[in-house]
Known about the structure:
By secondary structure, this protein is mostly helical. Helices cover 62% and strands 5% of the residues. It folds into seven domains: 7-78, Orthogonal Bundle (434 Repressor (Amino-terminal Domain)), CATH 1.10.260.40; 101-247, Rossmann fold (3-Layer(aba) Sandwich); 252-329; 336-416, Orthogonal Bundle (Arc Repressor Mutant, subunit A); 427-500, no CATH class; 507-607, Serine Threonine Protein Phosphatase 5, Tetratricopeptide repeat, CATH 1.25.40; 630-756, Serine Threonine Protein Phosphatase 5, Tetratricopeptide repeat (Alpha Horseshoe). It is elongated and about 105 Å long. The N and C termini lie far apart (107 Å). Pfam families: AAA_16, HTH_31. It comes from Isoptericola peretonis.
Amino acid sequence: MNRPRTLGEELRRLRLSADLTLEALAERSGVSVRTIGDIERGVSAAPHRRTVDALARGLRLGSSDREALLRESRARRAVPAQGPRASAVAPHRVWDFSGREREIAEITSFLSPPGDGRVAPVVISGLAGIGKTTTALEAIHRLERAGRPVLFLDLDGLSPCPLTPIQVIGALLRQVPGAGDAVPRTLDDAVRRWRTVTAERSVTVLLDNADSERQIRPVLTVHGDSAVVVTSRRALAGLEGVRRITLGPLRPEESVELLAKIIPADQRDAGDLRELAELSSHVPLAMRIAGNRIASTPAVHAGDFSARIRSAENRIRMLVAGDLAVEAAFTLSYEDLEPPVATLFRSISVIDAGTFDARIAAATLASAVSTGEVEDRLDELTDLGLLEARGGNRYHLHDLVRLFAGSRQVAADAVDAPEAAQAPRDRLRRWLLGSLERAGAWFEPDRTPAGAGPTGVAFADAAAADAWIRLEEHHWWPAMQAAAKAGEHALVADVADSMHWFSELWADWGHWSQLFALAVDSSRALADKRLEAMHLGYLVWATVVETGDRLEGLRLARLAVTAAEESEDHQQLGWANFYLSWMLNENGLDGSLPVCRTALLQFGLAGDSEGTTSASSLLGDLARATGDHERALAEYRAAYDDVQAGAPISTLAKTLLVSTLHFRMSEALVALDRPVEAIEAADRAIAVAEEVRGLTLVRISLRARAIAHLATGNGRGARSDIERALEGLDATSSGGVNTAFRDSLIPLLERAGQLP
């Protein structure tokens, strides 16, 4: 009678029947060549279900063959391990251990018994390859006490059948001299013997690679000042009364120190080591592999190796040295994920930078999943060390882990639907820009913020929208650039338009000229002259604010007028002429007044009250430019009266009011030698600016009040306002609105210093 085939034999038969090499099946399934080979040779007799499922997809198996393969896998996983299979051979203490001084100090302080002699257990968790075991060994070695045995046990936490609690206690007892070799018959018996042994002799226990709390709890019944240290990729949050250390990547200087110990001096320089550390995401395993590969090949320089792994495609594949592999380390954690969690893990690989929350993660998924459910899945990834939890319900995916997750996403798409590889990124981009448009709508007088839907977040109020825009800029700004590159011109133009009024509240962002330039290009691609004129106008403002280049602003304003004339749109003719009048005045050229009156006429024809108010205010600027401050003040007050006489003050009107109260009325009053009234006007400007969270407008209003204080001889008041206005400005900025504003404040501060 023929014996049944093993899982490995069946896999080999199916692979050969499909005429596939190991490499070809690895490419189609996303399972590494080494893993497939181990299964076929019987080295890995009980692979994880997800591995078998991926192989079945790669083999293009029908439903019956797929189920047969999965059945065999389940059967193999159900067979309990026979005999003592625990590893009690401790890994060696690495000679080139680097960094972690803060963590080592914390661990050793936890392991030093307080006055009552009891020591709290220590749990060290973190990402695969982050150095949990080496750090634990280093801490235990530095705290080594004469005559105290150190018991090491690998709990086999990432295997299909981790050690049971009774196996754990039994393996530890066998390491204690004089404890006897008899195997405990029950867990209660094992725990009683463990307590007796540790009551007689203190020990230090290192439980490596734990899978669950149940493996650990019986060990924690130790007596006296015995110490227990546990390492796990999981957080083991269910353990009570323990001290916790979560290891992250090494600090940059620690990474360079480690690489310098591994790579010979003639194969490196400081710059090479810094880049190699960055490419390795400061993960010790990745750096050790890279360093070993370089050191083992004298002809290879560190800079050469960095150049080879710089591309995302090469990095994971090349971080292999002998039996060390970053991909293999991550795979063990990945294969422990439930299918929905694994799907999310692959999907969030398209989140390229910074931290993110559950809403952003959910946006990458093909099917709708509640935010609460996504948070649960993210917590599972965090618990397994594949994701880092940050404050405020934010998460961070380390670069190497992101590349690994992306490789698994590509592998899954290659089997199921090759064209789907870009889908998560497309979904995320649409969601981000949909959310951005809805956020921007809160600051526009003519738009109604949309509710929740498939294309973004619904915001409860303008404050929530403002906070989201600033917080998620590192996500939506690349999405905006990607949409422009993808030719989504209508979307780019519409989203940029929604951000126009908000841009005045965040004038120091620094990228408005780039954003509105994208919108101009998209408008031209759409052959829409009205949109082109509109976005050219926005670009005039952004260019002057961010670069101070008034000549370029004038050139753009003239282009806006030409486009508006071709569009025959009264509103855009009004705004284009408004920007042109402003630029003519800023450049000291003639013609500002008639152009401004043309803008007023066009705004009247369009029924644009906001435009009319802006143009009326500009008339005051033109009067001030000629030294007629009385007339300027009258124009500003007329503009203010128009706002007050209109509908209830909107965000836009408040912004305009700040501009009127500050730039115009307060400075005009100082010029008319009426500083007390100027202070009152600036007070109102500051109050409105703070209400709409316009930080730039607050700073400008503070400067106006400081100037008025100087006019009254109040040096202390002026200094207070100037120092407040300077708070938060980037002192290293080399250009743009912050630099120009700072430069305008320094002479005022010097004047204030000369007054009481």
